[in-house]
Here is the input.
Amino acid sequence: MKKTIIIKYGELSTKKDNINYFLKILKENIDSLLTWTHFINYDRGRMFVDVDETDIDKTINVLKKTFGIHEIIVGYIDNELNFDKICENTINLIAEESFETFKVICKRSNKNYPLNSMEVSAKIGGYILKNRDNIKVDVNNPQLKVHIEIRNDAVLYYLNGFPGLGGYPVGTLGKGLLMLSGGIDSPVAGYLTIKRGVKISAIYFESPPHTSDFAKEKVKKLANVLASYNPNMNLYVINFTKIQEAILKNIPYEYLITIMRRMMYRISLKIAKKGNFKILINGESIGQVASQTLTSMSVINNVVDIPVIRPVACFDKLEIIDIAKKIDTYSISTLPYEDCCTVFVPEHPVINPELEKCILYEKLIPYEDLINEAIKNCEVIKVGKEEKFQDIL
Here is the structure.
């Protein structure tokens, strides 16, 4: 038997006529992530990654962070379909396993095989019972599940695997631009969007000297975590100082956040169109802060003409925190460095802003010139696994 890593697709299997496109992108994504020697083969049922034995663990660690994978299994493949050989290989598979109860699970895509899947499971189960002492079959809650898949030209053998992230391969559903702050919510929104197959880059608004270099490094670290799921992303850094100071000087205090968000959306839209991003993404959660009431969202959204995706809009804070901890962004997001969304928050911001007032107030500042200047001076940071950041932890 030849040792191999077996990938199960899960949700991708529902794509029917389009599955080959999704599998092609999944293979390309894995190819780009595995910098060591490997060979990938796939069909509509399974993908196989062959690597040296010494590279198996690090390969699995990469696959665990690759979207589009339902389950990752270290198993064996043999081209011999003879039933006696299947029995022998199964005993070899479990030779070093310690268990008291077991179950054999057979799948048979080879419909010409003389035994059906139930018959194979029963016969292999009986063979195991004859060759191992002090064990019994438990079909409901076995300690060990023995999987056998009889294909047209080979048989797969494996035990339990590792869960994958699911979702769709990154890049299969186009590109999006994430409005990334230093908070807890926006990195989670980015992660959830990547899971749906969207290749993301991010935009961050800094406001020196009101925000520190540590705040920027914090966001770069968050972007780097997202890049581990979404390789080779750009981080667009916008100097928002002049715009923010103009707003502070000229706009009624209760409308500061609303006007500021509208300016951010305008800039994000221009960056998105230049980069052919089809959507904007942010971490807004309904009702969490004043700018995230339905009325505020509607008024702020008024300045853009592409979809705005809010993956955590209906999550409560504890649910968002749970995901942030799972993806290792929570400890970074909670570092005490404020971004420009939090440094000038009014004590009583308007929660039901009026669009007509926003339009009137915005005429008090030359925002188009300020926006164009900010975009002209945009800093683009390439984010990836090799990126080195200032230590702020």
Observations:
- The chain has two domains: 2-166, 175-383.
